[in-house]
Amino acid sequence: MGKKKFLGGKNSNAYIVFYSTVMVVIVAILLAFTSLSLKEKQNANELNEKKDAIAASLGLGKGSYDSVIEAYVVNKEGQVISTTDTPLQKLFDLTGSFAKGEFPVFENKSTGEIVFPLTGKGLWDDIWGYVALEADLNTIKGAIFDHAGETPGLGAEIATAKYQAQFPGQTIYEGDQLVGIYVVKGGAQGAAHSVDAVTGGTKTSEGLQKMIKECLDNYDAFLKARKANVVTENAE
Amino acid sequence: MKNKTFQSLTNPLAKNNPVLVQILGICSALAVTTQLKPALVMGLSVTAVCAFSNLVLSLLRNGIPDRIRIIVQLVVIAALVTIVNDILKAYVYDVSKQLSVYVGLIITNCIIMGRVEAFALSNKPLPSLLDGIGNGLGYGAVLVIIGFVRELFGNGSLFGYQIIPECFYEAGYVNNGLMLFPPAALIIVGIIIWVHRTTNKDLQEK
Prior knowledge:
The structure holds 2 protein chains of 2 kinds.
Chain A: H1 13-57, H2 65-68, E1 69-74, E2 80-82, H3 87-90, H4 94-99, E3 103-108, E4 114-121, E5 126-133, E6 140-147, H5 161-164, E7 173-174, E8 177-178, E9 182-184, E10 194-196, H6 202-217, H7 220-235
Parallel strand pairs in A: 9-10
Antiparallel strand pairs in A: 1-2, 1-3, 3-4, 4-5, 5-6, 7-8
Chain B: H1 2-10, H2 26-31, H3 36-60, H4 69-91, H5 93-99, H6 101-104, H7 110-118, H8 125-155, E1 157-158, E2 161-162, H9 166-170, H10 182-199
Antiparallel strand pairs in B: 1-2
């Protein structure tokens, strides 16, 4: 043979270090490239999913978002602070935009029904959803929930149509007080503002109740201001 | 020689099927087969990953240091799976949501590393590529059979389209709920293995 081996042969330490370094750099470049080139398409898919979820909470079909919904952002006092800074984008970091005092609102232009986004914690991971209110701003028209990692068959049941069917018709105000929806263990049995908890999903149910109340609280001022408006408009 | 190369493609489809004979990849065969569509996509994804990991590692086989052999295999497989996952997310978003964590788990699917260790590291690129495709398709075929049975009897549909007509339900037919649970997949795999061994007498243990 007599040929000098590169870095002392295949099993020398120098060769192994060299080999792994080169391999990792190549793989990193490759992955960064695919991730960047597909990012736009993936984001578009996620955005469509969010649009469809908002439409679904209003009982509308897929793809109807663009023709029906008018979206804007309100602040804690209920004033519209932005109509241009795409409220949909806020959904990608809803917790962050809630913390900044920016609350996206999705309104059905023709009927005055309003959809609010929700975000919270279940047992294992994030849960989120959308609640649609009728034009009376009190009665729930529809609700959609989803989760990142709740237990299938137990907590994950909140994402099923069967569970969500309990929400339409419930009201979130008791007089002037925003109470949200009580998620009652052992069954709501027709009590006001209440739905059944998920069997075997106590922590998820508690998270759901907390999420609905806390997120809707952000919109309390907005809802009250809007109701006052509706009343005065009717009076005129 | 030509014949032998070709056999590395056809063997895993029947005689040496990864699921039925090597008993590899059972875990994901239970998890993603409640419906036909994710089963099919999973089968194709594993085929792609298995084929390319076999090809890449067979090309690299003379340069890979023995001591970090497994690490190199894992890096290549993990990179391929990440790429497949990105592609699924971009082009078949709803399916990628359904497959969720199982795409990531392709990395740990024993078929892939098993074929790399057993075949690709000691064979030329072309037969390795064919072996990868063959094993992926062999796995996919079993998944599709299970998915077919489970969706048809569990939901009365195929690819999401209703197959069993409404009048059956009105006459008292009920979907079999067991089909939607993992044990059903195990039972179906068992039945397929039974049929497979009955027709391939040389596979039967004495």
